[in-house]
Amino acid sequence: AKGKKTTVKFTLDCQAPANDNILTPHEVEKFFKERIKVAGKTGNLGDTVTVSREKSKIHVTAEAPFSKRYLKYLAKKYLKKQQLRDFLRVIAPNKTSYELRYFNINEDNDED
């Protein structure tokens, strides 16, 4: 066991848009790897932050402190870059994960 380092693990689930081929989870993973800052610098992940992917889920494992909101911010940044901000939003189904969901254009939730 390593010292007293606490790690946190967050997941971004890109299932819905990935199924529709609107975005590529692999690209999102790459974006996170390039954009996540450690000690104020990008490209500085080292052993502090690990970004991995499992099908359409991106997992970010990081030494605390690492804010979940930061992940949301990056996810939105990615969507903006891909011009998908108008179609997708970042929802938190639970404490450790986010998922990309479509905006519900028609507010009647009949298919849910």
Task: Please outline the helices and strands.
Elements: E1 7-13, H1 15-19, H2 25-35, E2 49-54, E3 57-63, H3 68-81, E4 88-94, E5 97-102
Parallel strand pairs: 1-5
Antiparallel strand pairs: 1-3, 2-3, 4-5
Quick structural summary:
This protein has 112 residues and is an alpha+beta fold. Helix content is 27%, strand content 29%. It has a five-stranded mixed beta sheet with strand order 2-3-1-5-4.
Description:
- Helices cover 27% and strands 29% of the residues.
- A hairpin with a 2-residue loop joins β4 and β5.
- Strands 2-3-1-5-4 form a five-stranded mixed beta sheet.
- The protein starts with 6 loop residues before the first strand and ends in a 10-residue tail after the last strand.
- With 112 residues, the protein is of the alpha+beta class.
- The model has no long low-confidence stretch (mean pLDDT 92).
Number of strands: 5
The outline comes out as: globular
Number of helices: 3
Give the structural class. Answer: alpha+beta
Mean pLDDT across residues: 92
Helix content: 25-40%
| Spatial strand arrangement across the major sheet | 2-3-1-5-4
List the uncertain runs: none
Note the beta-strand portion.
25-35%
Please outline the major beta sheet.
5 strands, mixed
What is the H-and-E element order?
A: EHHEEHEE
C-alpha-based Rg, rounded: 15 Å
First-residue to last-residue Cα separation: 44 Å
